[in-house]
Specification:
Helix content: 55-70%
Radius of gyration: 18 Å
Order of helices and strands: HHHEEHHHHHEEHH
Largest sheet: 2 strands, antiparallel
Low-confidence stretches: 1-13
Number of helices: 10
Strand content: 5-15%
Number of strands: 4
Shape: globular
Structural class: mainly alpha
Length: 248
Amino acid sequence: MERWRATNGSANGNFSGRSPREEITMLVVLAFATILLWHSPYGGYLLYPFTILSTWFHEMGHGLAAMAFGNDFERLVIFANGSGYALHVGEVEPSRISSAAIAAAGLLGPTAAGCALILSSQTRCATTAALAVLGIVLLASTLIWVRSLTGWVVLPAIGAACLWLAFRGAQNHRKFAVQFLGVQGCISIYRDFDYLFSAGGMLDGRPQVSDTGHIAQALFLPYWFWGGVITVMIAAMVYWSLRRAHSR
């Protein structure tokens, strides 16, 4: 891997040794490599920390959206199999719009975080800041909201690794880490793609309505319709972030 270099000596320019097209190609290769690993016999074990991270993105999306609508975000639970839930409560009955928005935030959260990480990889300062912020938020959220052993073990480890890379890691390692984490966020929905088009399932031995099921209950149209809408939104977010990164 070529060392990063600043354009015209600026810390805010395109400091990669690769062209924008080569950067996009690498991100696509990372995405396909991850998908292949998911379908290999032991790939799930290798990617396990990132599976937990994508669940954290998902549940934090629910929790933070609930807070934005005036609810209390009480706890975030992540199970060993990668499933989880965010518990939030409010003093009044939520509106249909807020219920739908909170449900959608969990589906869009990983992609939004992934796109932000990919965009941050374009400059040195943004890359370092992204890793530092992600590390701090992982550690803080574990202390404030996480209430499960899997979360207590995995999330602080990822947070500490992000902080170490931000302040002690080599420049090329920081950039690769941000891009890799960004790709994991953007394509994490692929791992549970059928969830988008499901009315629900079982969670911890109890029946659970899916996020698109909650949107359907709030906004009337069927869950598969909202699964399609979310899919289009995710594709648009990824396309925009790659196009924006390519244009720099």
